[in-house]
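Usage

Read records sequentially. Each one opens with the input sequence:
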Amino acid sequence: MAVKETSQIEDLENQLFARLKPIQPRTEFVDHLKYRLENPPNMVVESPSWIIGVLILAGSLLGGFILYAVLRKIIRWLSR
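and closes with the structure output:
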């Protein structure tokens, strides 16, 4: 069984090697890629302000209240 699997893998590798010819990339491209990988862009991460937290909390409370009121109306309407 292992010999058959090895043979299939070798056949697949040979097919891929025949279809995918290796290329020689341009030196400028390789150098630019190396530079970008070694020197990632500078990023500034801003800490969230307290205003955003308050807005999220207020929106959640308001949304919860509206959902509660709508569900209460639906339940009362269905229980008639």
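Summary fields computed downstream for this record:
- The CA atoms of residues 30 and 36 lie 10 Å apart.
- The mean pLDDT is 89.
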